[in-house]
Design brief:
5-stranded parallel beta sheet; Rossmann fold; about 15% strand; globular; alpha/beta; Histidinol_DH_CS; 3 domains; 17 helices; Hstdl_DH
Length: about 425
């Protein structure tokens, strides 16, 4: 793992945007979306056979499949899912918003009404892998928000069934329906509906490049959570950090994807070289070593800065998805952190804990978007409506001011809408 200084990093290793244009990818995705809109279920069956190698008879997961899934997993897994659900629910319950009203003098009532989105679709990656944690992190905030119908789209396994861990998590989270479909075609079906699938108002959840681009193209017809890029971790470490822990945490993100980014920032050059050696040592025993090694080679960096102030400026410029402060007094640095999706404090708060059990959401902004966006939460599954009520007397107090403003903008119809009521 390369050890470099700040200047070199800024010149050579700046994180790339997830918005890089791939015209061929877009053409493919748009073709899939259009085909699903025209042919509905027939297109879904065709794409499932083409991309997943599965000839489906039913798109919707049956109740018997849920029962089989529950029998297929261990009791220890069911216990872990319930414990995770409890912690995630407790955290997200604190995010609930309420409607509010304020009464002003002279007959004015103003307020904001908060209502849940009616139907939400969650995309859960599948096929060879299983992501039950994604189910919990998306479905539980939606449930707390009061969403009436929560559905999941996930690719089927080669046997035509959905991964049992995903189904057990879906049942625990109170998901209403699970569809066997993946890729851009699943996003299109959720956004526009088919014979078997009712369209949703919002789509959340991670996916590959095809899923991400499909979400971008359907945005506007439906809402989406974000366009997620490859996973990232940035660790600020001093001499009190255990080098073995830092190396393990860097590799925990590097194993996600060859495009994942793992960075450590430190003021201690000796620590930096020890860490570089430790990463190579741990790589030898990692099950996904080839993926992690590619990630570390391409994007992994250990950056040696001249001061903690320089370190903080650099990490705020990076705006990482995951930030670990593995320093002596992390709470003292916290007020200086402006841009990060999630912040983990100390040696015993690794990012992997946040992926599954800590409680806060693991769906986080990537590719520098933490500079202007937030983790997924209950607030993503509600709408806000402004409430305005004026009595006749209150209206007449402000009427002439409104007429003047409308006239300044050249909107005579607006002014007339006010004038016609004056003195009424």
């Amino acid at each position: 793992m390369r050890v470099i200084d700040t200047e070199t990093f800024l010149k050579e290793c700046k994180l790339k945007s997830s918005q890089d244009v791939d015209f061929e990818l877009d053409r493919t995705v748009l073709s899939i979306i259009e085909n699903v809109r025209k042919k509905g279920d027939a297109a879904l069956h065709s794409y499932t056979e083409q991309f997943d190698g599965v000839l489906l008879t039913e798109i919707v997961v049956s109740e018997n499949e849920f029962i089989e899934a529950n029998e297929a997993v261990s009791e220890s897994f069911r216990t872990a899912i319930r414990r995770a659900k409890e912690r995630i629910t407790a955290f997200h319950f604190e995010q609930k918003e309420r409607s509010w009203f304020i009464g002003e003098k002279d007959g004015v009532l103003l307020g904001q009404q908060v209502t849940p989105i009616e139907r939400v679709g969650i995309y859960v990656p599948g096929g060879k892998a299983a992501y039950p944690s994604t189910v919990l992190m998306n479905a539980l905030p939606a449930k707390i928000a009061g969403v009436e119908q929560i559905v999941i789209a996930t690719p089927p396994q080669p046997d035509g069934k959905v991964n049992p861990y995903v189904l057990v998590a879906a049942k625990e989270a109170g998901v209403d329906r699970v569809y066997k479909m993946g890729g851009a075609q699943a996003i299109a079906a959720l956004a526009y509906g088919t014979e078997s699938i009712e369209r949703v108002m919002k789509i959340t959840g991670p996916g590959n490049a095809y899923v991400a681009r499909a979400k971008k193209w359907v945005f506007g017809d439906v809402a989406i959570d974000m366009i997620a890029g490859p996973s990232e971790i940035c660790i600020v470490a001093d001499e009190t950090a255990k080098v073995e822990y830092v190396a393990a945490d860097l590799l925990s993100q590097a194993e996600h994807d060859e495009r994942a980014t793992a960075i450590c920032i430190t003021t201690n050059k000796k620590f930096a070289h020890k860490l570089s050696n430790e990463v190579q040592k741990q790589l030898l025993n990692l099950e996904r070593a080839s993926i992690a090694a590619s990630s570390i080679e391409a994007q992994g960096r250990i950056i040696v800065t001249n001061s903690i102030e320089e370190s903080l400026q650099l990490l705020n410029d990076i705006a990482p998805e995951h930030l670990q402060l593995m320093v002596n007094k992390p709470m003292e640095l916290l007020p200086k952190i402006c841009n990060a999706g999630a912040i983990f404090l100390g040696n015993y708060s690794p990012e992997a804990l946040g992926d599954y059990m800590a409680g806060p959401n693991h769906t986080l902004p990537t590719s520098g978007t933490a500079a202007f966006s937030s983790p997924l939460g209950v607030y993503d599954f509600v709408k806000r409506s402004s409430i305005i009520h004026f009595t006749n007397e209150a209206f007449n107090i402000v009427a002439e001011d409104v007429v003047q403003l409308a006239a300044a903008e050249g909107l005579a119809g607006h002014a007339n809408s006010i004038s016609i009521r004056k003195g009424g």
